[in-house]
From TrEMBL:
Family, similarity comment: Belongs to the protein kinase superfamily. ADCK protein kinase family.
Transferase keyword on record: yes
Biological source species: Actinokineospora bangkokensis
Molecular functions per Gene Ontology: ATP binding; transferase activity
Domain called ABC1 atypical kinase-like: residue spans: 90-325
Protein name per its UniProtKB record: ABC transporter ATP-binding protein
Keywords: ATP-binding, Nucleotide-binding, Transferase
UniProt cross-references to Gene3D superfamilies, sorted A to Z: Transferase(Phosphotransferase) domain 1
């Protein structure tokens, strides 16, 4: 894993340089007779390919950023979608692995020189490789199949270096996530990175989720077998990654995956006091018995009192079309700053479409719906853009909003029909009883 800031910055800088070079090359091709559409399509595909290559090879913060972007793929306009979709979805579950020798050294440092004696079997070939660590399949000494996650050496230095540099190039990535501001996303990711580097904290988070969902018929959280600062060992679970369900699942699989994901997302704060905060398809699987398996608990939000009740009330007021009460509550919760003049009808027009899934018994989450939402809030000529720029996002709601947006992006990628209103009514405080 390249650690030095100079080396990593040079690779990241190759992205905007490559884009600029392709722009000049495209101008030359148009002079030579190629149509503008042909040149644009070719340039878009090559840019997506380069982004995947650079972010994937660097792992660390660069790849983590790519994974965060991947859930917003559903919002990318159709004319750009295919090359970006292919490149971004690769980032959900793949990255070049570290060598067996390096991996053995990390295991010895974390588990002791006799680490191999803890296992009956150990596969040196990684089963998965992602942003800050890779996973190996093994058999624990008691015969259980386990997943061994090993952190890349230098991940801490690389993460911080990447996120500093990515903020310099934030505008370049805007096409990947229409309607999402890049700088706040990168800032929020930076704050979560430090937490994810400590695998002991991640193991504690996973233990809390596994205890809360033990015996659940719909959600499976693998139990933690052992942990160290840079290694975690958990029970191995077989399943179909959501990325594969998105790519080729049946309508029934898509609907079930979407329903289970929505229920997990909305129920966790009440059941665990925590919110799983890394929503991308690589962290979820459908098991053979039809449950949703959830992995990777490095990033979580602590919500000991559950989701703040005003959020449920605001959702209900948006569904009911009550601009005056909605604006009053948003002022009370500091979504509208003191002294800011906003027409309550404009506030409702901005938020109402986001609450649309909760207004019907079963909602069909589609890429087209998400594209419409991204398009209207990202259109600098429209009122929704002006309204959105005038609203404030209080710190206690920032991570909840980002995770909900990410989960919604996955539902749209799944093209899932979900009875989201019932789920929200049961688990989102204030939605079903806004006046109590």
């Amino acid at each position: 894993m390249p650690r030095k800031t100079v080396a990593r910055t040079a690779r990241l800088a190759s992205i905007p340089l490559g884009v600029a070079g392709r722009a000049v090359g495209g101008w030359g091709k148009r002079l030579a007779g190629q149509s503008a559409d042909e040149v644009s399509a070719e340039r878009t595909a090559k840019t997506a390919e380069q982004v995947f290559a650079v972010l994937g090879q660097l792992k660390g913060g660069a790849m983590k950023f790519g994974q965060a972007l991947s859930v917003f793929e559903a919002a990318v306009p159709d004319e750009l979608a295919e090359p970006y979709r292919e490149a971004l979805t690769k980032l959900q579950a793949a990255a070049p692995p570290m060598s067996a020798r390096t991996m053995h050294r990390v295991l010895a440092e974390q588990l002791g020189a006799g680490w191999a004696q803890r296992f009956a079997e150990f596969d040196d070939e990684p089963a998965a490789a992602a942003s800050i660590g890779q996973v190996h399949r093994a058999v624990w000494r008691d015969g259980r199949s386990v997943a061994v996650k090993v952190q890349y050496p230098g991940a801490d230095e690389a993460l911080m270096s990447d996120l500093r540099q990515l903020q310099r190039f934030s505008r370049l990535f805007q096409p990947f996530a229409p309607g999402v501001e890049m700088k706040p996303l990168l800032q929020e990711l930076s704050e979560r990175m430090v937490e994810e580097l400590d695998y002991r904290a991640e193991a504690d988070n996973q233990r809390a989720f596994a205890k809360a969902f033990a015996g659940d018929e719909r959600v499976l959280v693998p139990r933690v077998v052992a942990s160290a600062p840079k290694v975690t060992i958990t029970e191995w679970v077989e399943g179909t990654p959501l990325s594969k369900v998105i790519a080729g699942g049946t309508p029934e699989e898509r609907d079930r995956a979407g329903t289970l994901l929505a229920e997990f997302h909305f129920s966790s704060p009440s059941r665990v006091g925590l919110l799983h905060s890394d929503p991308h398809p690589g962290n979820f699987m459908l098991t053979p018995d039809g449950r949703l398996c959830v992995i990777d608990f490095g990033a979580i939000a602590r919500l000991p009192e559950g989701v703040p009740r005003p959020l449920g009330v605001m959702t209900r007021l948006a569904v009911d079309g009550d601009p005056e009460q909605l604006s009053a509550l948003m002022r009370a919760e500091h979504f509208i700053r003191p002294g800011m003049k906003l027409d309550p009808n404009d506030v409702l027009a901005y938020l109402g479409p986001f609450a649309e899934p909760a207004s019907v018994e079963v909602f069909h989450f589609t890429r087209r719906w998400m594209q419409r939402q991204a398009g209207r809030v990202g259109d600098m000529r429209g009122q929704d853009f002006k309204t959105g720029r005038s609203l404030n996002l209080p710190p206690q709601y920032l991570l909840i909003q980002r995770v909900t947006a990410g989960a919604t992006g996955i539902l749209c990628q799944l093209d899932a029909h979900v009875a989201i209103r019932d789920i929200i009514s049961h688990w989102l405080p204030g939605f079903a009883d806004p006046d109590s």
